[in-house]
Amino acid sequence: MTDTTSASPGSLDIELVLVPVDGSDESVTAVEYAVAVAEKYDAAVHAVYVVGQDVVRGIEEGAIERADVADDAQSFIEDIGESAGISGVPLQNSTAYGFSTKRKTQHPGSVILDTADDLEADFIVVPREPMTSDSGDVLAKAAEYVLLYASQPLLSV
Questions:
Q1: What domains does the chain contain, in order, with CATH numbers?
Q2: H-helix or E-strand containing 17?
């Protein structure tokens, strides 16, 4: 008798899907894909809200309140959490600064990959946003870097 419950060679063993988000429509789409992957593999999703360069600078300069940014991120996470909850997929979250004025090597791509490594994520779904402006598209700047350097399987949407 053949054991059909074990994974076949080359199949994926996914327990955690990481999806970086920034509040954009493209992030919502990426979450939908991440939830679909997680649902197929009976996995959880972790959404990391990546704070953009202009917002980080605004916080550091005192022009933007950290609490306001946290509220916006939490509101977005709650919205996407509803769709994950409907599918029965557990959703975890965190927030990370995508840039630093003190660490030159900290950028959205490195933050996503560091988060994936820290959480031992098995799969990454990264939104690939259109480059329409320099100030807003946090994850568009990260997508190519993540595509080039991720050690996990990934899907770019």
A1: 32-156 (3.40.50.620)
A2: strand 16-21
